[in-house]
Design a protein that fits this description.
The complex is a heterodimer of chains A (416) and B (100).
Chain A lengths: L8 E9 L6 H10 L5 E2 L14 E2 L13 H5 L3 H16 L11 E6 L5 H14 L8 H5 L3 H10 L5 E4 L5 H14 L5 E8 L4 H10 L28 E9 H6 L6 E10 L12 H14 L8 E3 L6 H15 L5 E3 L2 H4 L6 H15 L1 E2 L15 E2 L5 E2 L5 E7 L3 E9 L3
Parallel strand pairs in A: 4-5, 4-6, 9-10, 9-14, 10-12
Antiparallel strand pairs in A: 1-7, 1-8, 2-3, 6-7, 8-15, 11-13, 14-15
Helix pairs in contact in A: 3-6, 7-13, 10-11
Chain B lengths: L2 H16 L20 H15 L14 H13 L3 H6 L2 H5 L4
Helix pairs in contact in B: 1-2, 1-3
Classes of the chains: A alpha/beta (416), B mainly alpha (100).
Chain lengths: 416, 100
């Protein structure tokens, strides 16, 4: 914390393309009201899937034309469509950035698997029509880094540009790693976030076989129920979120609207199992503690925790234990947006960071949709039913990914 | 299949793949400068043309093809060089030799 070279970092722009809305107002209204978005799959014929998994949280149709021209759109997967649109929304939301040195502006984007739907479609072409009919564009469509690459091209920003591929943790990693570059003077403006569109027959088959998906097809809108004792898996979502992270003095000097401040960040790894979290949530707890120490924030000062809260039995149990370890029993309000949006994989931490910043602006904690009652085995205070008024303060936002990757970012309100 | 038919087919493909206006796809239109087709785009365009006319265009025959009119001539030549079914069955190597 006492690093003289450490620069403050403001959040000056937000963008989402989410199942709960493709603009900030619609998204925030659904979050604040706790309106679930899961429904029958429409983007592909789901009859190939077992019946109990034929639902998901899809992003509503939106016009791509303001973001990508005809050919660009044809030669990009949906993961890039969603990601580029959300990122360009965030930059537009940041207003006039003034004179920027393009070499000191960049893009970090989380993406778990890349253009999976394109790969599945072209794999069918390969097997039905042969190698000579496979699109030459498949490689740039399926590569996970297509999104940050395209955002960089669209903005003409030539600075740091990376894809972070840490599964469900990648959205928070995308924001945190971008924040570190601005904080340490490598960049002045970064777009950080994540995107995902792995709502595909192949991925959903595998998640289903894993036992990770909720089978609640008879009432899909009630299937994603983080921390509820009747939770039985996550609901697949798609979408993207991005933040504009700007060096503080620069943001103040240009009179930018400041949504909040990134106060600290940490990442670590369980080093335990390729899909299961370490029992007791030791890795997640250590990650939150390191992020708070990095921010110089005492756990007692935290206004709320935006949990990873996927609605799987395993994640929610170990995350609750981790939260108790860091904050004590029922000592801090906890919420998960996934009851509304489902699980966006690499998009998750990103759209949730957007929700945290909007929540900070209103001084509320949005409710965890479908959390009908507390799980007696989890000693945490879950905000449910309606948004809760809280005094403004730092918020911890968590994402945890297959592979054991953990990421926690501490976001603070803008100065009054 | 006459030349006019081929030109119209090429225009269909260009409108569908490239999002250009039909009027832009003239005989003299250059793929790179006028229709903004890069090397990957040309590969995709040729694939679509092959499907449309049921011909096989050897890769080494694309050398020097810069305009829509030249492409039409090539399609006509390929269509005349064997029955479409026979031509399509042969791989690019078989048609063009070691250079394919």
């Amino acid at each position: 914390m006492n690093d003289p070279a450490r620069r403050r970092v403001a959040v000056t722009g937000l963008g989402v393309k989410s199942p709960a809305g493709t603009d900030l107002d619609t998204y925030w209204t659904a979050l604040r009201d706790g309106t679930p978005t899961a429904g029958p799959i429409r983007r592909f014929d789901p009859s190939i899937l077992p019946e109990q998994f034929r639902f998901a949280c899809e992003v509503p149709e939106f016009d791509l034309a303001p973001y990508l021209d005809f050919k660009e759109a044809r030669h990009a997967d949906r993961a890039a469509h969603l990601g580029v649109a959300a990122a360009l929304d965030a930059v537009a939301d940041a207003g006039d950035l003034g004179a920027v040195d393009p070499a000191r502006c960049g893009v970090y984007a989380g993406c778990g698997v890349g253009g999976l739907m394109s790969m599945e479609e072209q794999n069918q072409v390969l097997h039905s029509r042969g190698s000579s009919r496979v699109s030459p564009y498949l490689v740039p469509m399926m590569m996970a880094n297509a999104t940050p690459a395209t955002i960089g091209m669209k903005l003409g920003w030539t600075g740091p540009n990376l894809c972070v591929a840490t599964a469900c943790a990648a959205g928070t990693h995308g924001i945190g790693e971008a924040y570190m570059l601005v904080r340490h003077g490598v960049a002045d403006v970064m777009v950080g976030g994540g995107t995902e569109a792995c709502m595909t027959p192949l991925a959903m088959s595998s998640f289903g076989r894993m036992g990770a998906l909720s089978p609640r097809v008879h009432e899909p809108e009630r299937a994603s129920r983080p921390f509820d004792p009747d939770r039985d898996g996550f609901v697949m979502g798609e979408g993207a979120g991005f933040l504009v992270l700007e060096e503080w003095e620069r943001a103040v000097a240009r009179g930018a609207r400041i949504y909040g401040e990134v106060l600290g960040y940490a990442r670590n790894t369980d080093a335990y199992h390729i899909t299961a979290p370490v029992p007791g949530g030791a890795g997640a707890a250590a990650c939150m503690q390191m992020a708070l120490a990095d921010a110089g924030v005492d756990p007692s000062a935290v206004a709320h925790v935006n949990a990873h809260g996927t609605s799987t039995p395993l994640n929610d149990a170990s995350e609750a234990q981790a939260i108790v370890k860091v904050f004590g029993e029922r000592a801090v309000p906890v919420t998960s947006g996934k009851g509304v949006t489902g699980h966006l994989v690499a998009g998750a931490g990103a759209i949730e960071a957007v929700a945290v910043l909007l929540a900070l602006g209103e001084g509320v904690v949005p409710p965890t949709a479908n959390h009908d009652r507390d799980d007696p085995d989890l000693a945490i205070d879950v905000v449910a039913g309606a948004a809760r008024q809280v005094a403004p303060g730092p918020v911890v936002s968590n994402s945890f990914g297959f592979g054991g990757h953990n990421a926690s970012v501490v976001l603070g309100p803008a100065p009054a | 299949m006459d030349r006019q038919e081929v030109l119209e087919g090429l225009a269909d493909v260009a409108v569908e793949l490239l999002g250009v206006d039909r009027e832009q796809v003239t005989e003299d239109a250059r793929f790179d400068e006028d229709l903004d087709v890069d090397s990957l785009g040309l590969v995709e365009f040729v694939m679509a043309v092959e499907d449309r006319f049921e011909v096989k265009v050897p890769e080494d025959r694309l050398e020097g093809i810069t305009t829509v009119g030249q492409a039409a001539d090539l399609v006509l030549e390929m269509a005349g060089s064997g029955t479409p079914a026979e031509t399509a069955l042969r791989g690019p190597n078989a048609v063009s030799g070691a250079g394919g």
